[in-house]
Structures are given as structure tokens and as C-alpha cells.
């Protein structure tokens, strides 16, 4: 990342501090973070970078190398309202606006350069990466001493209330709290996290991007959230629970009759069974049972395809190609409707894996997939 020279070119001065915020991949446990479930994500070595310099007025200037056509976007601490024309800057403005409304003291503005290598709309959480980055930058520069959990919660609040995306806490929390070479078992109800091993000897995680331009993802996501809320309200008339993920598969069998809409029954089934898969996946990881973990990945994708209906042709073809090319397990990661999938691939199969998957995917869709070789990394941090 050429942060320093680009900053100097854009702002005609040198930056004072540099920061990095990772993206994330979720190994298993999809669409259950907003249902109070346990999830199994890791922070990854592609993400979002920032270079900043303090100003002596209330002006904040934003520039992104990824959206250079937009030029410098200038706002003030006195007017941080959402503006459709500001695009990606709205995520950053939402964070600053929320900090101010929570009473944090921000005495002056910054010049900020953002550059990321996370593919947009890939399902690797580019928006959450930016939100956590901006929260961390302002906490660091102004000595606000905001905890990583609180930065994550502020990011979620911005998504929910400022941007209108009713997401859970998983993305922001793993980006804030990730650990090198590990994943976190994360309780999205209590925010408790537990570091666990995230790799199997003799196998490699491969991230695959459909490169399919997702449409209406936010509205479909919000629709799933509303469907789960409707199920929860009905279930709560018969059992005392706060979240759907408290329901066991055995309880589901006796409670599903309460739900008259067959589509809502399917949504309910996914949430309950996916939670059970996360619990089982932690055991398989502890036992270094790669094949058992791989089987859970395949079952997760099938549930997301058939019961939760968030995959679509491109993801299904990509996962099908990964299995044919030697992966022992593969599934969508992220919201779905396009974006990325992950695959657990035996190392002897790696040499031909991308070639075989690419050929299969191009034949079926006409699009060319992308592949990412990533490490599991620490969460957001200052890098200089």
C-alpha cells in the first residue's frame, strides 16, 4: 500500500499515523449472529488501511484511492448527516456522528486517506472493516480509550441505524478483536470470545470470489432478519427464550408446528441446525478432524441454499466446483446472494485446485472467479 506518497500527493503534507483494519471470513455459523448464536470467524490479512493527519479546525477530509474519481469529500464535525452522494464516506461519518452523540470529545478534524484491498460486495466485510478502522483511529488520536467491544458495537449501531442494514455484531467484533493464526468462537449474545485453533495440518483454507455483482443484498438480508424476528415472537408464546439460537434441534421438532408459514419453518430450521453445526465444528477443530469439519461446511451450505435461500446460482456453482476439485468441504461465507465462498483443500490438491474450479465456474456462469491466499491476523491496529 502506497499510503504515504498518495497522502502527500492528495493533501500536500505528510501523514502522522498509519492504521490497518482486517477483513473477516466466517468459517461456519452464517446468519445466526443476529439470532444470538455462537459463530466461528477469523480476521484475515486483506483489509483497509488509513493514513491520517490532525487538523486545527472542525473540517474532516476524506479521500480513498479505491474511489479516486470521487476526489476529496469534505465534511465538518457540525454536519455529519447521511448524504447519498457521499457513498462510502457515509460509513465513516456515521461512526464519528455516533461517537459525538455518545459524548466523546473530538476537538478538531482530520485529513484521512483510505485504501483497501478487500473486494467490495465480496462478503469479506469491507464496510465493517472501514467502520472499525475509523472508530479505532478516532479513539487513538483523541485518547478516547474506547474498548474494542465498544468500537464494534458502535460499528453495528451505524450499520443498523445510520445505514439501514440490520446486521448482527460478528463482523465488527472479529475485526476489532481478531488474533493472528486463530479464529474466535464468539457468543454474539454476550460478546464473549474464545480463541481457538483455525487450521488443520495438511489442509489449506481457500477463499473464492464469485465476482458476481450482488443485487438487493441489503433488502434481502433485512428480510431474513424480519423473518427470524417473526419466528421468535411466535416461539416465545410457548417457551422462555431471548434468542432463536437458544432452541435446540430437539426442541425445534416439537415447536415447528407453531409456525404456519412453511417458509418461516425453513428459516427457523436453518438457524437451529446452523447453531448445532458451530458447536460441533468447535469439537472437530479441537480433535483436528478435518474431514468432520469439512462435512459440517457442506451441510452448512446446503442449509443456506435450501432452508435460508441466500446462496444463488453463482455461489452454488463455485462450491460445487470446489468439491469436484478436491475440497473436503466448502460453503458460502458472508451474507450470500453472491460474494465469496470458502473451501478446505488437502494440500496435494492445491496445485490444480484453482485451475479446475475456474474452468468449472467459467463454463457454468461465464464469469471468472478470483482466489485469495490469506493468513489469519490480529484485529485493527496502528501500524506506525
Automatic annotation (TrEMBL):
Pathway as given in its UniProt record: Carbohydrate metabolism; galactose metabolism
| Residues that coordinate or bind substrate | 30-33, 221
- Note the Pfam families from the entry: GalKase_gal_bdg, GHMP_kinases_C, GHMP_kinases_N
Catalysed reactions, semicolon-separated: alpha-D-galactose + ATP = alpha-D-galactose 1-phosphate + ADP + H(+)
Annotated InterPro entries: Galactokinase, Galactokinase_bac, Galactokinase_CS, GalKase_N, GHMP_kinase_C_dom, GHMP_kinase_C_sf, GHMP_kinase_N_dom, GHMP_knse_ATP-bd_CS
E.C. numbers? 2.7.1.6
Q: Where are the catalytic residues?
A: 171 (proton acceptor)
Print the keywords alphabetically.
ATP-binding, Carbohydrate metabolism, Cytoplasm, Galactose metabolism, Kinase, Magnesium, Metal-binding, Nucleotide-binding, Transferase
Q: Residues that bind ATP, according to the entry?
A: 64
Ranges for domain GHMP kinase N-terminal: 90-176
Its Gene Ontology molecular function terms? galactokinase activity
| Protein family per UniProt | Belongs to the GHMP kinase family. GalK subfamily.
Matching entries from PANTHER family are given as:
GALACTOKINASE-RELATED (PTHR10457:SF7), MEVALONATE KINASE/GALACTOKINASE (PTHR10457)
Protein name in UniProt = Galactokinase
Recorded name of the encoding gene: galK
Amino acid at each position: 500500500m502506497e499510503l504515504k506518497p498518495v497522502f502527500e500527493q492528495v493533501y500536500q503534507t505528510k501523514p502522522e499515523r498509519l492504521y490497518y483494519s482486517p477483513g473477516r471470513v466466517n468459517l461456519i455459523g452464517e446468519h445466526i449472529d443476529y439470532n444470538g448464536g455462537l459463530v466461528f470467524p477469523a480476521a484475515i490479512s486483506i483489509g483497509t488501511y488509513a493514513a491520517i493527519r490532525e487538523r486545527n479546525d472542525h473540517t474532516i477530509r476524506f479521500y480513498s484511492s479505491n474511489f479516486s474519481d470521487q476526489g476529496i469529500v469534505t465534511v465538518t464535525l457540525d454536519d455529519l448527516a447521511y448524504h447519498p452522494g457521499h457513498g462510502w464516506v457515509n460509513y465513516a461519518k456515521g461512526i464519528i456522528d455516533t461517537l459525538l452523540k455518545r459524548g466523546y470529545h473530538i476537538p478538531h478534524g482530520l485529513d484521512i486517506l483510505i485504501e483497501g484491498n478487500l473486494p467490495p460486495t465480496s462478503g469479506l466485510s469491507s464496510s465493517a472493516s472501514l467502520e472499525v478502522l475509523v472508530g479505532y483511529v478516532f479513539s487513538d488520536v483523541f485518547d478516547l480509550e474506547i474498548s474494542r467491544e465498544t468500537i464494534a458495537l458502535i460499528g453495528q449501531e451505524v450499520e443498523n441505524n445510520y445505514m439501514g442494514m440490520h446486521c448482527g455484531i460478528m463482523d465488527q467484533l472479529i475485526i476489532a478483536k481478531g488474533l493472528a493464526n486463530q479464529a474466535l468462537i464468539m457468543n454474539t449474545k454476550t460478546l464473549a470470545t474464545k480463541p481457538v485453533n483455525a487450521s488443520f495440518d495438511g489442509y489449506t483454507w481457500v477463499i473464492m470470489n464469485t465476482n458476481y455483482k450482488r443485487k438487493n443484498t441489503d433488502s434481502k438480508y433485512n428480510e431474513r432478519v424480519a423473518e427470524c424476528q417473526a419466528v421468535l415472537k411466535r416461539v416465545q408464546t410457548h417457551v422462555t427464550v431471548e434468542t432463536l439460537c437458544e432452541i435446540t434441534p430437539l426442541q425445534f421438532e416439537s415447536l415447528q408446528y407453531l409456525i404456519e408459514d412453511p417458509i418461516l419453518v425453513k428459516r427457523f430450521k436453518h438457524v437451529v441446525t446452523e447453531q448445532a453445526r458451530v458447536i460441533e465444528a468447535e469439537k472437530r477443530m479441537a480433535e483436528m478432524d478435518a474431514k468432520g469439519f469439512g462435512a459440517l461446511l457442506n451441510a452448512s451450505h446446503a442449509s443456506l441454499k435450501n432452508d435460508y435461500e441466500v446462496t444463488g446460482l453463482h455461489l452454488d456453482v463455485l462450491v460445487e466446483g470446489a468439491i469436484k476439485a478436491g475440497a473436503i468441504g466448502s460453503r458460502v461465507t458472508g451474507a450470500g446472494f453472491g460474494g465469496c465462498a470458502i473451501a478446505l483443500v488437502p494440500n496435494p490438491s492445491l496445485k490444480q485446485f484453482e485451475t479446475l474450479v475456474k474452468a468449472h465456474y467459467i463454463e457454468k456462469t461465464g464469469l471468472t472467479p478470483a482466489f485469495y491466499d490469506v493468513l489469519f491476523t490480529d484485529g485493527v491496529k496502528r501500524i506506525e
